Amino acid sequence: MKVAIEVMCPTCNTVGHFDEVERDADCFCQTCDYPLFWARPRHTGPGAVPAASPAELPEGGRRRLPGTEGWAISEQLVCPRCFEPNLTTEGFCVRCGADLHPRPPAPVYLPPPPVPRPVPVQPVLVPSQRRHWWPWVAAACLVVIGLVAWLLVAYA
User: Fold this and answer.
1) Can you tell me the distance from the alpha carbon of 111 to that of 139, in angstroms, rounded to the nearest whole number?
2) Which residues contact 98 (CB under 8 A, 6 or more apart)?
3) How many Cα atoms are found within 13 Å in the side-chain-facing hemisphere of 134?
4) How far, in Å, CA of 68 to CA of 88, rounded?
5) How is the chain split into domains, by residue range?
6) CA angle 21, 24, 27 (to 5 degrees)
7) pLDDT per position as a tens digit, 31-73
8) Distance, CA of 84 to CA of 78 (rounded, Å)
9) pTM tops 0.85
């Protein structure tokens, strides 16, 4: 059961109709996009309450902010500040006016790390690897003396 209500938009005085039970796009003013379900129903008889003027409306939150939600579009560009979807052809956000194509921040170059100081190398004292030749000479002399003694004993 549809219950159509006739409401006068308090911001632009356009008369609009919407279903009080089912909310859809018709619940917003076709001229200024004001949410008509927040407006008072229009009374035309004696004792009618006049609609609020725009000056009497509280600031903030009473109007549906523009954007691309609900539109049949395939691409959206999300605002980096308020996250409102916008058309990709827009340069500034329709909600907060932020630049939709901001320049990337300049890269911050860090100074190079300091060059480490060379660590002084302590000389390592290695024991001498020099081979001693005299034990070999002594062993060879003993072998030669033993061989000569054996020959003398064997042929004498």
Assistant:
1) 70
2) 79, 80, 81, 82, 92
3) 0
4) 10
5) 1-58, 65-102
6) 80
7) 887 777 777 665 544 444 444 444 444 443 334 445 445 444 4
8) 6
9) no
